[in-house]
Each structure stands twice: as structure tokens, then as C-alpha cells.
Design goal:
The complex is a heterotrimer of chains A (81), B (158) and C (755).
Chain A lengths: L1 E4 L13 E4 L4 H11 L4 H6 L1 E5 L2 E4 L12 E5 L5
Parallel strand pairs in A: 1-5
Antiparallel strand pairs in A: 1-2, 3-4, 3-5
Chain B lengths: L3 E7 L2 E7 L5 H8 L18 E4 L2 E4 L12 E3 L12 H8 L9 H14 L5 H7 L11 H16 L1
Helix pairs in contact in B: 2-5
Chain C lengths: L10 H5 L15 H6 L14 E7 L5 E7 L1 H5 L3 E5 L10 H10 L4 E2 L5 E7 L2 H8 L3 E6 L6 H4 L24 E9 L2 H6 L3 E9 L11 E6 L5 E5 L4 H12 L6 E5 L15 H11 L3 E4 L2 H7 L5 E10 L5 E11 L7 H8 L9 E8 L14 H19 L3 H8 L18 H10 L1 H4 L6 E10 L4 E9 L5 E5 L7 H13 L6 E5 L16 H28 L6 E4 L2 E4 L10 E2 H6 L8 E9 L5 E11 L6 E11 L6 H20 L30 E6 L21 H13 L10 H11 L1
Parallel strand pairs in C: 1-12, 10-11, 14-15, 18-19, 25-26
Antiparallel strand pairs in C: 1-5, 2-4, 2-6, 3-5, 7-15, 8-13, 9-10, 9-12, 13-14, 16-24, 17-18, 17-23, 20-21, 21-22, 24-25
Helix pairs in contact in C: 8-9, 11-12, 12-20, 13-14, 16-17, 19-20
The chains are: A alpha+beta (81), B alpha+beta (158), C alpha+beta (755).
Chain lengths: 81, 158, 755
């Protein structure tokens, strides 16, 4: 199991939970599991998200491994100037 | 309305072009003479990217009519280097990394050259005020000012 | 074998590497072209048979388009094609449809200057005359340009009937985005505070102000194949959007990036390109379009304006106990995420037990905002850093000591979610504290301002190829427009990794059909991500060259190492053969197996965040309210400065854009919803005589995610100046300022109000 921390405004999709647990070995599995467990997150994930694993931010990198004790934070898709 | 025939001198060469009465010198230089080193940033005399020397006087070529060049002498950035040998100002801008995107660079060079022709030993404040009509959005001007001061020093020594 | 850096190297390990090329200051490869006028920018290209196109723009801030009659324009001599929104393909993604509708209004015009139709003709003069013959019937609607006004229930709705995702109850139909970030118990945090300050701030919309107006030359033949030449931060983005908007496949459209005359985020979208392509398709001739400066101001993206409420609690000795920010941004007529980025960055400099940021994006009758250098961060961090300064002032504490006490560091849970890895904020603050500027005496009417700043930095999709030429030179091919000297830094990284002199390397930015996909030049990503891909492409070429040497020597490829630009035998073969240089291997490549090249394509991750600290001394004239910048010093963590001149240039340029934002620059709208200052005379960006030298101190706290430790440097520099200057002005004038820009009338009013 990995614990995924969501950004605040997504709590409405998880019944108020900020930290949720899913079974996943990598980013792609984690995103799929999240969308399955919390269908309200599906459109958010499809719209594009970033994932921070142990402090490093990844964009759409499905095969990035996640260790059970990794810090996993779901973040919005970001764009710079 | 029929076009106007203009005979002028550009970067030391005799040049002729046909222009509309309402056409700017900037457009004539870019579109008829092929000197696209002269840049348009605003078309209203506010940014200095189109700076050229007209009979030795620094002007925004977007504020001069193309027909006004008749019988006069125009100098642009394309006329600064002597063949392969760069003008001291050009070399100093490179040495000081005084350009990033480079769109304001031709205007800055022409304006700085006009300054040093009038005042070979300007203070930093004088350089800053002289170049106040040349907008640069990339550099914060620091390295440009240093490059012009350094060029002035070298030209005085030469 | 190649000497690999170890993935996950620590900063200390990266610090030990000795560089030959990295860190030097060679002249830039595109320099000669740019000082002689030879460099070709967006407006500098012409094509045989070329037409010129111009755009009819809305004179109204908000109106329904009842009808458009283009027949008289089309009938005019010299007019070859006219397009309106009907000539483009409907998009499946709402984001793309918004971008298309911004290029050409569909159904409604949403701001003063919104494009309605375009004419291609034999000259600009003819095109402009034809625009006057287009009859547009409008039903004028009420408009709103203010962020707080647009949130009221009485505000006119821009997109009737459109639903936006995740908007809480109680917000009106103009709220297109809502976000929350933070952690900890806010109430408990504020309960621990000895002092709590609550303030409200406003900042004006500012424009990126690149000196080169948008320009493009597009051509499309009857075979359905197109070409675009354009000044852009991302030609793959131009290709994908333009092809989608006119309904062709991307392989049929080749886009070439010209030299770019500044962008700062403003050239990360399309305005003219799909229009020129559609006109060329209809006319069967190349079409050139160049915006006027007025069009750039009225119709291309400025940044957002903001209205923010902020609350920070602090103990008497300077520890921040809790922070909360409510950020309301308007970014014009279409949705955007800039408020979200503001909410993520607002408190990023601090190690906080309790923090919460809430952000709303609101639609208004203004042009669609575009990214502007660290989008969202400057105005958010301005509010936090202003209140932290006021707390320090009230408590009699040193502003740098307080920031050091509260600074985010490795292991800090960031205010936007993840835990920080190795970061350089503490070192940057220490450098500022130790600098002579911080303790220099101040004159009368002068004040010193301090602010921290932060930006994430991004990475993303990147492709680099590298050809080893027979004469021992190297061609590097990349696909990101060079906006601030990246061809120089990429050539340097290639030379460093290959172990050859810099002058042997030439880097070009290739067109969309010549190399794999690349994300836009944005987010301070290029030196980091393209640099990383270049280093890996070099390693691929090195591996190939080591293999050739091994074959020539008749030994195992594993027994060959690459040292100082040459293959050398290792292990029991060490010293058995003299080193074989890159030039020697290159010369024989046809005989040893054919052309040698290296390439690397990757969606890069591992961008390192960057912090900056700015110190400024200002002098405020109490008679006129005019503020002069007397001294300015920028401290910033670059990870590793590849070409220090251009790192300094980014720091200086960012600082000066921020100074303009703080003191002068603003979009001014009249009651009629029209932009009143669409020119450089009335929208005043800093000029040379406004400024002193901008001193710089580069810190190098390596980013573990890059082989050389690079962090992006392009954006962080614009973040701190807003608060640094505001804090300086507040100390100099003796009154707190809560609105940007701090133009002389506002400062005078504040001084008079305090009397």
C-alpha cells in the first residue's frame, strides 16, 4: 500500500480524506487505482496531474517506481513562463 | 497616389528606392532595401529598436518618412562592422554578454555609436540617459551599460 | 565504459566534479549575427508571392456577434482571402477550444481587442482598408474588468451555461477555478502567535513586454502541406495547435522557430499562426502577419491581476506560527491556473506547522492571460513577504534573521505538498546577510527592502541529437527556441561531456520535422532538461566511439574508458595503446562501421526548485512620490551556473521586470472596458536611466536531479522584487503600501493619508 496525499480542494472527491491509501508499484498504477477507488478523481487525473515522489516532481511518468514508504503527493499539472 | 523616387546614401553606398508618400523610413529600409537589422518594436518612437543615424543624428526610423531620406545619409547597424572586423561596440557587447534575445541590440548599437561620436568620455549616468530611449526587456541594462563604458574607454585609448 | 554520474548523487558529491568548460564565459554562438543585424527574427522573412494579413478587432469589451458580412471586403481589389471563426475546426478539448476562440472570436467578443476577422491582401495598406469594409453587427453587453467585481452575483457572465470543475457552492459563474493547499492546524497555529497581522493587497496586470511583436509567415499549398516560420517559445506547440485548428495532421505541418525577440512566457501560445495558415490555405499564397504594439497590448496575454487577503501569526522572537492566504486572480476571458500556482508558491520559502492557501480564478472582460515568468508567484509572494516585513518591523526584529529562523530546508514539508530535498534558501539568506549591502548606511528618505522568492522550475519532454562529423567537430541538434543564450550553454555541456574544445561544437534549434518532440521553452526548463538530454546524447556517442576504438584495438568494449576527449584502454590493457581521440575516431568512422551519432529522447524529471533573496535600497521623494532605486543586489541559487554571464543576465533581467511591476507597470481600463495605455509611452517599462547596476551573487547548491547539478534560473528572479521594493518604499516613506504599482500618485496619497 502507498499513501497518497491529495491537494486540499480534492478532499471533496474522497469524502474529506486528505491522505488516501491505494495498492500500487508505480505512478501509473497509483493513478489508475485512485480513479477506481474515488471515481470523482477520474476527471481530475484525466485532465492532467503531476506526482511528487519523495520530493521529486514527475509529469505523466507512469513507470516511476513507488516504494511502500515513499512520500507520494498528487499535485495539479503546472506550467511555467 | 504615385510612388516617390528617393536617392539616398545608406551605410556609405548610393541607394535608390520607390516609396509611398506615407511610408516610414523604417519600412523602406526593411522592405525595399533589405536591411532587416533595423527592428520594429512599437512604430511610435517609444522603444528605439529602429534607431538609425540620419546625417549623423540619432533618429527613430519609424518616425521619419522614407521620402525624407532624399539626398541624405543613413547609417544602420549593418554598416557598423568593417567587413569581418567588428566595431568596438559590437565586440564589447559580445564580450560583456550584453544581449540575450538580441532584438534591441541593433538599436542600442546605433544609439551608443551616436553617443560616443558626440561624447567620447561619458559618465555612467550620461550613458543611461542617452540610452533611455532604447528599451531592453531582457538584461536590466547592467551589462549593456558596462559594455558601452568599456567600448568608450577602448576607443579613447585607440 | 563511460564514467557515469550516479543517479541520486548528493549535492556534496556533485560539488567535487572539476569542470573544464562549465563555469567559463565564452562568447555566445549567435552573438555575431545579433550584433551585425543578420539574425532573422519573426518579421524578418519574406517569401515570393507573399500576402500581408491584418486583423479586425472588437471595439467592445463584451458583445454578442449578431452577424459578420465580409462580402465587400472580399470584393476589394487586392484582397485574396478573409477568415472568421467559421473557417476553423471545432476542438474536442475545452482548453484548445478556448485558445482557438481567443485567436478568432466565436459567438461573442469577450474583450476590447478580441479578434473577429482577418484579411489577406497584397499589402498591409490594402488589408487594413478591407477591414473597414467588414460589417459586424454587435449586441453590446455589460462588462467587468475587475477581479473582485467579477465575483459579485451582479457581474455579467462571460461564458453562459459553461460548467467548471470542482467549484464550491457560493461562487458565481465567472469563477473558473478553485484550489486549496496546505497542512496543519491553522487555529492552533494562530493561537500560539503573540502577534497576528491581517492585510489585503491588490496588484495590477502587467505585460511581459517583449520588444519583438508577434510575427509569422505561413504557407499552405493545395497538397495540404504547410510551413510556418514564427517567433515562439515552442514551435511544436505551434504545430500541434495550428494543425488541429485547421484540421490537418501534424506531419503535414513543418514549423521553424525564428530567433525570438523576448517572450518571458508570453510566446507560449498561438495568436496569429493558425489565422495565417487558414488564410494561406484559402489564398494559395504565403501569408505574413505582424502585430502592431497596440495589438500586442490589447490582444496578447498580460499576466493576472490579483486581490489577496493574508493573515500571518508570529511569536515575539520571530517564529511564524501560522499563515493563511486567500488569493483571487483574474486572467481575462478564459480559464487558467495562475491563481493555483500563486497558492502553491505563496508560503514556499517557509517551514510552517500550519499553512493554508485558497485560490480562485475569475473570468473578466480582459485578454486571455499568458504565462509571465514564474506565473502566479510574484504577486502571491509579494503579499506574504510584505506582511512578514511588517511583523518584523512591529516586533523590532531583523528581517533576514527572521527569514533564516523560518526558512524551508531539506526535510521541510513544503506548503504545496511534497517534502523538500536539497535546497539553497538558507545559504542564499546567509549570503545576503553577510553581504556589505545589508549593512551599508542609508541616506535621508531612503529605505531598505528584503524579500525571498521561489520557483519550482520544470523539466518535461526533450529530444537531442548529436552528430560526430568526420573532421572531429560536433553538431548538436535540439528543438527548444533559444530565448536567453541556451545554445551557448548546451554547446558547453556537449563540449564538457565529450572532452573537446567548445569551438568544435555547434548547436542548432531544428524545425519540427527534424528532431523528436520538445515541450515549450518555459518553466526555466531548457538549460536543465535540454542540458540533461545533451549530456546523455553525448554519452551515447561516447559509448559508440569507445566501441569503435575497442574494435580497432581488438579488445573488449568494456575495457575502454573515455578520458579528456579520447578513448583509452583500461584494466590489463591500460597503456597498451595510445589514447584515440574523438577526431581520430571520427576521421575513420566510415571504415569502422559508419556514421557516429548520439541521441536522447526523454520526459525529463528531477527539476530542482530555486530560491532567491533580493536586497534593495530605494529613495522616495516626499514631494512627488517618485521612487528611485539606489542599490540592488540579487542572491540566487543556480545549482550549477553553466555560463555565469547568462545566469547573471537572467537574475538582472528578472529583477528589473519585477521593479517595473512594483513601481510603474499596469493595465489601465476605462469605464468603457477599453484598455487606455496600449503603448510603451503610457505603459512604462523600466529604462536605463531608471536603474543602478544590478549586483548579483550566484550560489551553487547542486540539484541532485541533474548530472552537473543545474537548477533552472530563468524565473525566480522576478519573484522577490515586488515585495523587496514595496518593503523598501514602506520604510523610506514611513507608510505601508498595499497596492501595486506604487506609482507616484499612490505613494503621495499614502503619505498624505498618514499625516
Amino acid at each position: 500500500m502507498v499513501t497518497v496525499t491529495l491537494w486540499g480542494s480534492l478532499r471533496s472527491a474522497t469524502g474529506g480524506l486528505k491522505d488516501v491509501e491505494v495498492e500500487a508499484r508505480n505512478t501509473g498504477e497509483m493513478l489508475k487505482a485512485l480513479a477506481k477507488k474515488y471515481p470523482a478523481l477520474e476527471s481530475v487525473i484525466e485532465g492532467g496531474v503531476s506526482v511528487a515522489i519523495d520530493g521529486l516532481i514527475y509529469k505523466e511518468a507512469w513507470f516511476t517506481p513507488i516504494k511502500p514508504d515513499s512520500e507520494v503527493v498528487l499535485m495539479p499539472y503546472m506550467k511555467g513562463g | 497616389m504615385s510612388k516617390i523616387h528617393v536617392s539616398t546614401t545608406i551605410n556609405g553606398d548610393a541607394v535608390e528606392y520607390l516609396c509611398e508618400p506615407s511610408e516610414t523610413l523604417l519600412d523602406a529600409l526593411r522592405d525595399h532595401v533589405g536591411l532587416t537589422g533595423v527592428k520594429e518594436g512599437c512604430g511610435s518612437g517609444d522603444c528605439g529598436a529602429c534607431s538609425v543615424e540620419l546625417d549623423g543624428r540619432l533618429v527613430c526610423s519609424c518616425l521619419v518618412l522614407a521620402a525624407e531620406a532624399e539626398g541624405r545619409s543613413v547609417n544602420t547597424v549593418e554598416g557598423m562592422a568593417d567587413g569581418e572586423k567588428l566595431h568596438v561596440l559590437q565586440q564589447k557587447l559580445l564580450d560583456h554578454a550584453a544581449l540575450q534575445c538580441g532584438i534591441c541590440t541593433p538599436g542600442i548599437l546605433v544609439a551608443a555609436k551616436a553617443l560616443l561620436e558626440k561624447n567620447p568620455d561619458p559618465t555612467e549616468t550620461e550613458v543611461r540617459y542617452w540610452l533611455a530611449g532604447n528599451l531592453c526587456r531582457c538584461t536590466g541594462y547592467d551589462k549593456i551599460i558596462r559594455a558601452v563604458m568599456d567600448a568608450a574607454a577602448e576607443m579613447r585609448g585607440a | 565504459m563511460v564514467t557515469e554520474y550516479v543517479e541520486g548523487s548528493t549535492g556534496a558529491e556533485l560539488n567535487k566534479r572539476e569542470f573544464k568548460v562549465i563555469g567559463t564565459r565564452p562568447p555566445r554562438p549567435d552573438g555575431i549575427d545579433k550584433v551585425t543585424g543578420r539574425a532573422l527574427f519573426g518579421a524578418d522573412l519574406t517569401a515570393p508571392g507573399m500576402l500581408h494579413a491584418t486583423i479586425l478587432r472588437s471595439p467592445h469589451a463584451h458583445a454578442r456577434i449578431i452577424s459578420i458580412d465580409t462580402s465587400a471586403a472580399l470584393a476589394m481589389s487586392g484582397v485574396k482571402a478573409v477568415v472568421t471563426s467559421q473557417d476553423f475546426v471545432k476542438q474536442s478539448s475545452s482548453g484548445n477550444q478556448d485558445t482557438l476562440d481567443n485567436c478568432m472570436a466565436r459567438g461573442k467578443v469577450l474583450y476590447d481587442g478580441h479578434a473577429v476577422a482577418s484579411v489577406a491582401a497584397t499589402s498591409v495598406k490594402v488589408a487594413n482598408a478591407a477591414l473597414k469594409l467588414i460589417k459586424v453587427e454587435y449586441e453590446v453587453l455589460p462588462h467587468e474588468t475587475d477581479v473582485d467585481g467579477a465575483m459579485l452575483d451582479t457581474a455579467p457572465v462571460l461564458h453562459e451555461g459553461r460548467k467548471f470543475r470542482n467549484i464550491p457552492e457560493g461562487n458565481n459563474a465567472n469563477v473558473s477555478g478553485y484550489w486549496e493547499f496546505g497542512h496543519g492546524d491553522l487555529d492552533a497555529g494562530f493561537a500560539k502567535a503573540d502577534i497576528i497581522i491581517e492585510r489585503s493587497f491588490k496588484t495590477a496586470a502587467t505585460h511581459q513586454g517583449y520588444i519583438e511583436p508577434h510575427a509569422t509567415l505561413a504557407t499552405m499549398g493545395p497538397d495540404g502541406r504547410g510551413e510556418i516560420w514564427v517567433c515562439t517559445q515552442g514551435h511544436y506547440m505551434v504545430r500541434d495547435l495550428s494543425a488541429a485548428f485547421i484540421g490537418i495532421e501534424t506531419s503535414q505541418l513543418r514549423v521553424t522557430a525564428s530567433e525570438i525577440g523576448g517572450g518571458f512566457g508570453g510566446k507560449t501560445t498561438v495568436y496569429l499562426e493558425p489565422v495565417a495558415l487558414a488564410l494561406s490555405k484559402k489564398a494559395g499564397r504565403p501569408v505574413k502577419m505582424v502585430m502592431t504594439r497596440e495589438e500586442v497590448f490589447r490582444a496578447t496575454g498580460p499576466t493576472t491581476s490579483s486581490s489577496t487577503d493574508i493573515k500571518i501569526g508570529m511569536t515575539k522572537d520571530g517564529r511564524i506560527t501560522a499563515g493563511q492566504a486567500k488569493l483571487r486572480y483574474q486572467g481575462g476571458a478564459y480559464p487558467n491556473i495562475t491563481a493555483m500556482l500563486g497558492a502553491m508558491t505563496a508560503f514556499a520559502s517557509y517551514d510552517l506547522d500550519a499553512v493554508q492557501t485558497l485560490a480562485w480564478n475569475v473570468l473578466t472582460n480582459r485578454p486571455k492571460q499568458a504565462a509571465y515568468r514564474a506565473p502566479g508567484a510574484p504577486m502571491a509572494i509579494y503579499t506574504v513577504e510584505s506582511v512578514v516585513d511588517e511583523l518584523c518591523q512591529k516586533l523590532g526584529l531583523d528581517p533576514l534573521e527572521v527569514r533564516l529562523m523560518n526558512a524551508a530546508k531539506k526535510g521541510t514539508l513544503s506548503s504545496y505538498g511534497p517534502t523538500f530535498d536539497e535546497i539553497g534558501l538558507v545559504a542564499t539568506l546567509e549570503a545576503a546577510k553577510a553581504h556589505p549591502h545589508y549593512t551599508a548606511p542609508l541616506g535621508p528618505n531612503q529605505g531598505r527592502g528584503v524579500s525571498c522568492g521561489f520557483w519550482f522550475n520544470f523539466a518535461g519532454n526533450t529530444s537531442v541529437s548529436m552528430n560526430i562529423n568526420e573532421d572531429g567537430t560536433v553538431a548538436v541538434i535540439e528543438g527548444n527556441p533559444d530565448i536567453g543564450g541556451s545554445r551557448a550553454s548546451i554547446s558547453m555541456m556537449a563540449a564538457e561531456e565529450l572532452g573537446i574544445p567548445l569551438e568544435k561544437v555547434r548547436t542548432i534549434v531544428a524545425d519540427t520535422n527534424s528532431i523528436g518532440f520538445n515541450d515549450v521553452t518555459d518553466g526555466s526548463r531548457v538549460t536543465f532538461a535540454v542540458g540533461l538530454a545533451t549530456i546523455k546524447a553525448a554519452r551515447a556517442a561516447i559509448k559508440n566511439m569507445c566501441g569503435r576504438a575497442a574494435q580497432v584495438w581488438g579488445i573488449d568494449a568494456d575495457a575502454v574508458d573515455w578520458v579528456d576527449g579520447a578513448a583509452v584502454p583500461t584494466g590489463h590493457n591500460a597503456g597498451e595503446f595510445p589514447p584515440m581521440t574523438l577526431a581520430e575516431i571520427a576521421a575513420d568512422q566510415a571504415k569502422t562501421g559508419g556514421p557516429i551519432a548520439g541521441h536522447h529522447e526523454v520526459n525529463v524529471d528531477g527539476a530542482g526548485v530555486s530560491f532567491g533573496v533580493h536586497l534593495v535600497d530605494v529613495e522616495v521623494d516626499p514631494e512627488t512620490g517618485f521612487t528611485q532605486i539606489k542599490r540592488y543586489t540579487v542572491f540566487q541559487d543556480a545549482g550549477k551556473a553553466i555560463h555565469p554571464d547568462y545566469v547573471e543576465g537572467q537574475m538582472q533581467g528578472g529583477a528589473v521586470q519585477g521593479i517595473g511591476w512594483a513601481l510603474n507597470e499596469e493595465y489601465i481600463y476605462g469605464e468603457d472596458g477599453k484598455l487606455q495605455n496600449a503603448g510603451f509611452l503610457d505603459y512604462r517599462i523600466p529604462v536605463a536611466s531608471d536603474l543602478p547596476m544590478i549586483d548579483t551573487v550566484i550560489l551553487e547548491i547542486p540539484n541532485p536531479g541533474h548530472p552537473y547539478g543545474v537548477r533552472g534560473v530563468g524565473e525566480t528572479g522576478i519573484v522577490p522584487p515586488l515585495a523587496a521594493v514595496a518593503n523598501g518604499v514602506s520604510h523610506a516613506a514611513g507608510v505601508r503600501m498595499f497596492e501595486l504599482p506604487m506609482s507616484p500618485p499612490r505613494i503621495l496619497a499614502a503619505i498624505d493619508g498618514a499625516k
